Amino acid sequence: MIIPYQELSKEALINLIEQFILREGTDYGENEVNNDTKIEQVLGQIKRGEAVIVYSELHEEVNIMSAQQFKQMQTEEGDYHIDRDEF
Hints:
By secondary structure, this protein is α+β, with helices and mostly antiparallel strands. The chain has three helices and two strands. It has a single domain (about 5-25, about 35-85), classed as Arc Repressor Mutant, subunit A (Orthogonal Bundle), CATH 1.10.10.610. It has helices at about 10-25, 35-50, 65-75; strands spanning about 50-55, 60-65. Strands 1-2 form a two-stranded antiparallel sheet. Helix 1 (about 10-25) crosses helix 2 (about 35-50). The longest helix is centred in the N-terminal third of the chain and has 15 residues, at about 10-25.
């Protein structure tokens, strides 16, 4: 199930993004990017709909993933629920 970012408090959203950044270990190329910049980049992706916040009932966890990855997972696994009107 997709959780609209607007339903989270600012603190909860930032904490979720920070956990995602630390867990993913994203490669930003030759130049190191500080955490504040990474947070802003992920937040921008969420606001533009390029990334979504997803709750998995099966795994009982919240995660951030690309919208495309979510759609593909939806098709392949049927693990997550999505309202097709959200996209």
